Every structure is written in C-alpha cells, then in structure tokens.
Amino acid sequence: MVTEDDVRRVALSLPHTTERPSYGTPGFRVRDTLFARIREEGDVLVVFVAGEADKQGLVSSEPAKFFTTPHYDGHPSVLVRLGAVDVAELTELLTDSWRLRAPRSVLRELETD
C-alpha cells in the first residue's frame, strides 16, 4: 500500500515537477501543468492517461485498483486507489502521466541527457 508521502516522493523525483495545491489537495505539476493530484478522500490519486479507451481498459481490467466517476466522464484521467497499488506501479502511473502532460521542450531535454 502506498501513501501520500510515496506519491509526493515519486512525483517530485520527476524533472521540472513542483507541488502546488489543486482543489485544496496536493497537486503535482510539470512546468505548471497538472499531471496528478491526491483527491479529497486522501487515498485516491488522479492521473492522466492517453485517452478514454486507456481509461476504460484500466477500469474494466482492474476495478479494484482503477475507477472513475461521472465528473471525469470524457476526461483522459483515471482514479487510482492507493491501497491497491505498490510503489513500482505508482511510479509507472505517475511517470506515464508526467510524460503525457510535460511540454515538448522538457521531453526533448530528457532525450538529450
């Protein structure tokens, strides 16, 4: 089971990431673009996915880990139950979300390193 501290540690390890509240909860941004946030419940994380098909694939294949609400209908993001993922999966989810939201200049910078 991962914690808010794990989310913070992993998210802030990604390049050009800062933490700033989003809807009153911890939000993580790459160059001021939100890529993840902890929801009000405290044990649920919002991350971005490539599209609605990816979201539905996650939700239908592993509903104990991933879910959505009507608020997120049509939005390329999925809700993650922190108690159902380990740090390795959290790292993959946050990194993928970060890559989807990072500006091209940041991604190019990584390719040249």
Automatic annotation (TrEMBL):
What the entry lists under Pfam families is as follows: YjbR
Q: What InterPro entries would the database entry show?
A: YjbR-like_sf, YjbR/MT2646/Rv2570-like
Q: Which SUPFAM superfamilies match?
A: YjbR-like
Region Disordered: start and end of each range? Answer: 1-25
Return the protein name: YjbR protein
